[in-house]
Design goal:
There is one protein chain. The chain is mainly alpha-helical and 82 residues long. It has one domain (2-81). It is built from 5 helices and no strands. It has helices at 2-20, 25-35, 38-51, 60-71, 74-81. Helix 2 (25-35) crosses helix 4. The chain is globular and about 30 Å long. The termini are close together.
Length: 82
């Protein structure tokens, strides 16, 4: 649970950061994937390979959907409520 909370905090921090800057959707995704560390970085690279996504075409919306499905699932939020 702690790891998921850390990932949620990191993700919300990225969203807040983008609220202060006027980046394109592609630049947001690039900045975000560049800042990933450890297993999340490996996951991001694998997702791009398996889904055939080129870095320059990945949008923030796509990244957000992929990230939430992997790390911030409904189960995480159900557990968090408890």
């Amino acid at each position: 649970m702690k790891k998921s909370q850390d990932l949620e905090a990191w993700f919300l921090g990225m969203k807040n950061f983008f609220g202060l800057h006027d980046y394109s959707e592609n630049m947001k995704a690039t900045i975000t994937t560049f800042s990933l560390k450890g297993k999340a970085c490996s996951w991001s690279k694998d997702v791009k390979i398996f889904r055939g996504i080129h870095e320059e075409y990945l949008t923030w919306s796509e990244f957000e959907w992929l990230f939430k499905n992997k790390y911030l699932s409904g189960r995480y939020f159900d557990d968090k409520e408890k």
